[in-house]
Amino acid sequence: MILTFGEKVKNLREDANLTQTQLGEILNMTQRKISYIERNQYEPSIQDLIQICTFFNVSSDYLIGLK
């Protein structure tokens, strides 16, 4: 099963034992924006992608599904 971008972000957040609100505060985003990202209802900007990758120490290739 291939995970979506949002599912990967949600899994990373849950693995870090963070709520959407906590992650939003860390990344300077709202809880609503995190929720939209996790439900694939918002396409994150390049800056959002960089922040998420940096915080979770993952590559953008992993998050967007490139090998």
Give a description of the structure:
Helix 2 packs across helix 3 (31-38). This protein has helices spanning 5-15, 20-27, 31-38, 46-56, 60-64. By secondary structure, it is mainly α. 64% of the residues lie in helices and 0% in strands. The model has no long low-confidence stretch (mean pLDDT 96).
Portion in helices: 55-70%
**Terminal-residue CA separation:** 15 Å
Rounded radius of gyration (Å): 11 Å
Shape: globular
Poorly predicted parts: none
What would you say about this model in short?
The chain has five helices and no strands. It has helices at 5-15, 20-27, 31-38, 46-56, 60-64.
Descriptors for this entry?
67 residues, mainly alpha, 5 helices
Topology record:
Layout (H helix, E strand, L loop, with lengths): L4 H11 L4 H8 L3 H8 L7 H11 L3 H5 L3
